[in-house]
Structures are given as C-alpha cells and as structure tokens.
Design a protein that fits this description.
There is one protein chain. This protein is an alpha+beta fold. It has helices spanning 8-19, 25-32, 36-48, 80-91, 117-130; strands at 67-75, 96-101, 108-114, 135-143. It has a 4-stranded antiparallel β-sheet with strand order 2-3-1-4. A hairpin with a 6-residue loop joins β2 and β3 (108-114). α2 (25-32) crosses α3. The relative contact order is 0.16. The mean pLDDT is 88.
Length: 155
Amino acid sequence: VGMIKLDQTDKKILNAIASDGRVSLVDLAKKINIARMTIHHRLKQLQKSGIIQGFSALIHPEKFNFQIYQLMVSVNSISEDVKKKIYSYCLNHPNITFYVDCVGRWNFELTFEVENQQKLQELLIDLRTDLKELITNIEIIMTFNYFVKYNLFVD
C-alpha cells in the first residue's frame, strides 16, 4: 500500500473534523479559513482514499451502566491466519467494541463493554472456548475513565 501525502489543507481539515465530525461545511470553512467547496472536494478525496473511514459518535457506555474492560491477549504463535481468526471473532461479537493488533508482550488488545461482571465471565468462557487453540493468556483491565484524542497533526 502506497503512502498518501497530506498537505497542510488536508491536515487542517482532518484536525478540525477529528474533534467535531458533525461540523457543517460552512462552519468548517470559517474555522480553518478555506473555501467551502475546497473542503467538500477534499473530504470526498480523503474518504475515497480511505484516510477517512467513516464518521461515528463517541459513546460512553458507563453512562448507561455498562462496564468497560480491556482484555490483553497473547496467542501461541502469531500469523496472518491467527490475526484473521481473532479479528473475525471480534467483528462478529456484539460486546467487543475495539480491537488492536499489538507488538510486545500482548498480541491483541480487545475492549469489551458488558452489563456486569457475570456477563464478562460468560464472555471470557466463550472466548477461551471458541479460540482455545490460539489463546495462551488473557489479562483483564477494568477501565474507569478514558479520553480519546484524534488530533494527530501538530503544527
């Protein structure tokens, strides 16, 4: 996959929408001092190239009494096939909301959002049963607060 070059205009647009993905084109144009039609065209190109993969709401599940757990997972042997199996499992699991392929002690970081600890225990049993030939260790971290920052282009 070739690298995509971003100019300052692209970076300004990405920074602005990273903090507010619902901003209107008119307000965005005023905020970063770039013509509305230029922004419209650039956004379409950023989506077409895959840099912008979509727009979504950041939901805090703890506000409706769900608990958030990070599962740090290590596997027997890492391969593309193993990654595909775990990724597919995550995509098809309604309680897994985040997946990271890691380097280091842990091979994967999974975020589960569940109603209670009993539900977490059930999900862990399912995970260990469904992927028993792959998983060697899981560490569970309960998450109390989190902050997401997407503005990556510091000037």
